[in-house]
Design a protein that fits this description.
The complex is a heterodimer of chains A (113) and B (112). Chain A is mainly β. In chain A, 0% of the residues lie in helices and 50% in strands. Chain A has strands at 3-6, 11-14, 19-21, 23-26, 32-38, 44-50, 56-59, 62-65, 75-77, 86-93, 101-103, 107-112. In chain A, the strands form 3 sheets. In chain A, strands 2, 5, 6, 10, 11 and 12 form a 6-stranded mixed beta sheet that branches. A 4-stranded antiparallel beta sheet of chain A has the order 3-9-8-7, with no helix packed on it. In chain A, a hairpin with a 2-residue loop joins strand 7 and strand 8 (62-65). With 112 residues, chain B is an all-beta fold. Chain B has strands at 5-7, 10-13, 19-24, 31-38, 42-50, 53-56, 65-71, 74-79, 88-95, 102-103, 107-111. In chain B, a hairpin with a 3-residue loop joins strand 4 and strand 5. Chain B starts with a strand and ends with a strand. The chains are: A mainly beta (113), B mainly beta (112). Chain A binds chain B through residues 34, 41-46, 49, 89, 98-106, and chain B through 4, 31, 33, 42-43, 45, 48, 50, 55-56, 91, 93, 95, 98, 100-106.
Chain lengths: 113, 112
Protein backbone atom coordinates (compact mmCIF):
# COMPACT_ATOMS: atom_id res chain seq x y z
CA UNK A 1 0.00 0.00 0.00
CA UNK A 2 0.86 3.67 -0.12
CA UNK A 3 3.33 4.94 2.45
CA UNK A 4 5.34 7.99 3.47
CA UNK A 5 8.77 7.94 5.07
CA UNK A 6 10.23 11.07 6.63
CA UNK A 7 13.43 11.67 8.49
CA UNK A 8 13.32 10.90 12.15
CA UNK A 9 13.79 13.71 14.54
CA UNK A 10 14.15 15.49 16.63
CA UNK A 11 15.88 18.24 14.70
CA UNK A 12 17.42 21.10 16.65
CA UNK A 13 18.63 24.24 14.88
CA UNK A 14 19.72 27.73 15.77
CA UNK A 15 17.69 30.68 14.57
CA UNK A 16 18.44 31.66 10.95
CA UNK A 17 19.82 28.21 10.11
CA UNK A 18 18.81 26.34 6.94
CA UNK A 19 16.22 23.61 7.33
CA UNK A 20 15.71 20.43 5.34
CA UNK A 21 13.30 17.67 6.34
CA UNK A 22 13.42 14.72 3.99
CA UNK A 23 10.29 12.94 2.79
CA UNK A 24 9.96 10.07 0.34
CA UNK A 25 6.84 8.20 -0.66
CA UNK A 26 5.64 4.96 -2.18
CA UNK A 27 2.51 5.13 -4.31
CA UNK A 28 1.27 4.23 -7.74
CA UNK A 29 0.67 6.91 -10.31
CA UNK A 30 0.76 10.54 -9.31
CA UNK A 31 -0.40 11.17 -5.74
CA UNK A 32 -0.89 14.65 -4.33
CA UNK A 33 1.69 15.58 -1.71
CA UNK A 34 1.34 17.73 1.40
CA UNK A 35 3.24 19.13 4.34
CA UNK A 36 1.29 19.75 7.54
CA UNK A 37 2.53 21.46 10.70
CA UNK A 38 1.37 20.81 14.26
CA UNK A 39 2.04 23.30 17.04
CA UNK A 40 1.90 22.12 20.67
CA UNK A 41 -1.62 21.36 21.82
CA UNK A 42 -3.16 22.02 18.44
CA UNK A 43 -4.36 20.10 15.42
CA UNK A 44 -2.54 19.88 12.13
CA UNK A 45 -2.51 22.80 9.72
CA UNK A 46 -1.81 22.57 6.01
CA UNK A 47 1.53 24.22 5.27
CA UNK A 48 1.87 23.60 1.55
CA UNK A 49 0.96 21.15 -1.19
CA UNK A 50 1.82 20.00 -4.71
CA UNK A 51 -0.45 18.03 -6.98
CA UNK A 52 1.72 17.11 -9.94
CA UNK A 53 5.32 16.35 -10.77
CA UNK A 54 7.76 19.29 -10.66
CA UNK A 55 5.22 21.48 -8.85
CA UNK A 56 6.68 23.57 -6.07
CA UNK A 57 4.55 24.28 -3.05
CA UNK A 58 5.46 27.28 -0.90
CA UNK A 59 4.13 29.12 2.14
CA UNK A 60 5.59 31.23 4.96
CA UNK A 61 9.12 30.81 3.57
CA UNK A 62 8.84 27.02 3.37
CA UNK A 63 9.17 25.24 0.04
CA UNK A 64 8.92 21.69 -1.27
CA UNK A 65 9.21 20.36 -4.83
CA UNK A 66 7.40 17.25 -6.10
CA UNK A 67 10.12 15.03 -7.55
CA UNK A 68 8.61 12.06 -9.34
CA UNK A 69 11.96 10.60 -10.37
CA UNK A 70 13.12 10.32 -6.76
CA UNK A 71 9.62 9.99 -5.23
CA UNK A 72 10.50 12.79 -2.84
CA UNK A 73 8.97 15.95 -1.41
CA UNK A 74 11.61 17.45 0.88
CA UNK A 75 10.70 20.47 2.99
CA UNK A 76 13.14 23.40 3.06
CA UNK A 77 13.39 26.82 4.62
CA UNK A 78 16.29 29.17 4.20
CA UNK A 79 16.22 30.81 7.62
CA UNK A 80 14.22 29.31 10.47
CA UNK A 81 12.74 31.24 13.37
CA UNK A 82 11.94 30.23 16.93
CA UNK A 83 8.26 30.35 15.98
CA UNK A 84 8.83 27.53 13.46
CA UNK A 85 9.32 25.08 16.32
CA UNK A 86 6.66 22.42 15.75
CA UNK A 87 6.13 18.91 14.41
CA UNK A 88 6.07 18.60 10.62
CA UNK A 89 4.20 15.85 8.78
CA UNK A 90 4.57 14.80 5.18
CA UNK A 91 1.46 13.21 3.65
CA UNK A 92 0.10 11.91 0.38
CA UNK A 93 -3.31 11.46 -1.16
CA UNK A 94 -3.49 8.71 -3.72
CA UNK A 95 -4.42 9.36 -7.31
CA UNK A 96 -7.91 8.08 -8.05
CA UNK A 97 -10.41 10.02 -6.05
CA UNK A 98 -10.03 8.80 -2.48
CA UNK A 99 -9.82 11.58 0.09
CA UNK A 100 -7.70 9.44 2.39
CA UNK A 101 -4.41 10.98 3.54
CA UNK A 102 -1.43 8.80 4.46
CA UNK A 103 0.94 10.52 6.88
CA UNK A 104 4.58 10.08 7.78
CA UNK A 105 5.52 9.71 11.44
CA UNK A 106 6.33 13.39 11.86
CA UNK A 107 9.56 15.27 12.55
CA UNK A 108 9.89 17.48 15.59
CA UNK A 109 11.77 20.71 14.97
CA UNK A 110 13.13 22.88 17.75
CA UNK A 111 14.66 26.24 16.90
CA UNK A 112 16.77 27.89 19.58
CA UNK A 113 17.35 31.64 19.76
CA UNK B 1 -14.98 31.66 11.00
CA UNK B 2 -15.20 28.82 13.46
CA UNK B 3 -12.91 25.92 12.77
CA UNK B 4 -13.51 22.26 13.52
CA UNK B 5 -14.70 21.96 17.10
CA UNK B 6 -14.02 18.87 19.16
CA UNK B 7 -15.18 17.99 22.63
CA UNK B 8 -14.08 17.18 25.20
CA UNK B 9 -10.48 18.40 24.97
CA UNK B 10 -9.40 15.93 27.61
CA UNK B 11 -11.02 12.74 28.84
CA UNK B 12 -9.81 10.44 31.58
CA UNK B 13 -11.82 7.33 32.32
CA UNK B 14 -11.45 3.83 33.61
CA UNK B 15 -11.07 0.73 31.53
CA UNK B 16 -14.38 -0.75 30.49
CA UNK B 17 -16.26 2.53 30.39
CA UNK B 18 -17.92 3.90 27.29
CA UNK B 19 -16.25 6.93 25.75
CA UNK B 20 -17.90 9.30 23.30
CA UNK B 21 -15.93 11.90 21.37
CA UNK B 22 -17.72 14.66 19.51
CA UNK B 23 -16.96 16.74 16.46
CA UNK B 24 -18.57 19.70 14.73
CA UNK B 25 -17.12 20.20 11.25
CA UNK B 26 -16.76 23.51 9.46
CA UNK B 27 -20.09 24.60 8.07
CA UNK B 28 -20.48 23.65 4.42
CA UNK B 29 -17.78 21.00 4.43
CA UNK B 30 -18.91 17.68 2.98
CA UNK B 31 -16.11 15.40 4.21
CA UNK B 32 -15.38 14.46 7.80
CA UNK B 33 -12.43 12.42 9.03
CA UNK B 34 -11.50 10.79 12.34
CA UNK B 35 -7.81 10.20 13.11
CA UNK B 36 -5.92 8.69 16.02
CA UNK B 37 -2.42 9.86 16.97
CA UNK B 38 -0.02 7.84 19.13
CA UNK B 39 3.72 7.90 19.59
CA UNK B 40 4.08 4.35 18.36
CA UNK B 41 1.86 4.42 15.29
CA UNK B 42 1.78 8.09 14.38
CA UNK B 43 -1.33 9.53 12.76
CA UNK B 44 -3.82 6.96 11.49
CA UNK B 45 -7.06 7.50 9.64
CA UNK B 46 -9.88 5.63 11.36
CA UNK B 47 -12.86 6.47 9.17
CA UNK B 48 -14.16 9.16 6.87
CA UNK B 49 -17.59 10.30 5.75
CA UNK B 50 -18.86 12.05 2.65
CA UNK B 51 -22.24 13.78 2.92
CA UNK B 52 -22.81 11.94 6.22
CA UNK B 53 -22.21 8.50 4.66
CA UNK B 54 -19.22 6.39 5.79
CA UNK B 55 -16.90 5.88 2.83
CA UNK B 56 -13.87 4.12 4.26
CA UNK B 57 -13.82 2.55 7.73
CA UNK B 58 -10.89 0.23 7.08
CA UNK B 59 -8.85 1.96 9.76
CA UNK B 60 -11.32 1.32 12.58
CA UNK B 61 -9.38 -0.96 14.96
CA UNK B 62 -12.13 -3.35 15.98
CA UNK B 63 -15.78 -3.67 16.84
CA UNK B 64 -15.32 -1.70 20.04
CA UNK B 65 -15.04 1.43 17.88
CA UNK B 66 -18.00 2.97 16.09
CA UNK B 67 -18.58 6.31 14.39
CA UNK B 68 -21.74 8.06 13.32
CA UNK B 69 -22.66 11.20 11.48
CA UNK B 70 -26.39 11.82 11.98
CA UNK B 71 -26.28 15.17 10.18
CA UNK B 72 -23.90 17.50 8.38
CA UNK B 73 -22.92 19.37 11.52
CA UNK B 74 -22.18 16.62 14.00
CA UNK B 75 -20.26 13.37 14.33
CA UNK B 76 -19.37 11.03 17.18
CA UNK B 77 -16.69 8.43 17.73
CA UNK B 78 -17.58 5.91 20.39
CA UNK B 79 -15.42 3.33 22.15
CA UNK B 80 -17.21 0.64 24.13
CA UNK B 81 -15.71 -0.91 26.17
CA UNK B 82 -12.58 1.20 26.40
CA UNK B 83 -9.13 -0.30 27.03
CA UNK B 84 -5.81 1.29 28.11
CA UNK B 85 -4.37 0.77 24.62
CA UNK B 86 -7.01 3.17 23.27
CA UNK B 87 -5.23 6.04 25.00
CA UNK B 88 -4.27 8.52 22.29
CA UNK B 89 -5.11 11.91 20.84
CA UNK B 90 -8.13 11.71 18.55
CA UNK B 91 -8.51 14.30 15.82
CA UNK B 92 -11.46 15.22 13.71
CA UNK B 93 -10.96 16.99 10.39
CA UNK B 94 -13.26 18.28 7.68
CA UNK B 95 -12.86 19.37 4.09
CA UNK B 96 -14.81 20.66 1.14
CA UNK B 97 -14.59 18.05 -1.62
CA UNK B 98 -10.99 17.69 -2.75
CA UNK B 99 -9.77 20.62 -0.72
CA UNK B 100 -7.38 20.67 2.23
CA UNK B 101 -8.39 19.01 5.46
CA UNK B 102 -8.92 21.30 8.44
CA UNK B 103 -8.19 19.74 11.80
CA UNK B 104 -9.67 20.32 15.21
CA UNK B 105 -7.47 20.66 18.29
CA UNK B 106 -8.03 17.05 19.26
CA UNK B 107 -9.27 15.09 22.27
CA UNK B 108 -6.60 13.68 24.54
CA UNK B 109 -7.99 10.39 25.84
CA UNK B 110 -6.50 8.50 28.77
CA UNK B 111 -7.88 5.10 29.75
CA UNK B 112 -6.73 3.98 33.17
Amino acid sequence: GDSVTQMEGPVTLSEEAFLTINCTYTATGYPSLFWYVQYPGEGLQLLLKATKADDKGSNKGFEATYRKETTSFHLEKGSVQVSDSAVYFCALRSQGGSEKLVFGKGTKLTVNP
Amino acid sequence: DAGVIQSPRHEVTEMGQEVTLRCKPISGHDYLFWYRQTMMRGLELLIYFNNNVPIDDSGMPEDRFSAKMPNASFSTLKIQPSEPRDSAVYFCASSLGGGPQHFGDGTRLSIL
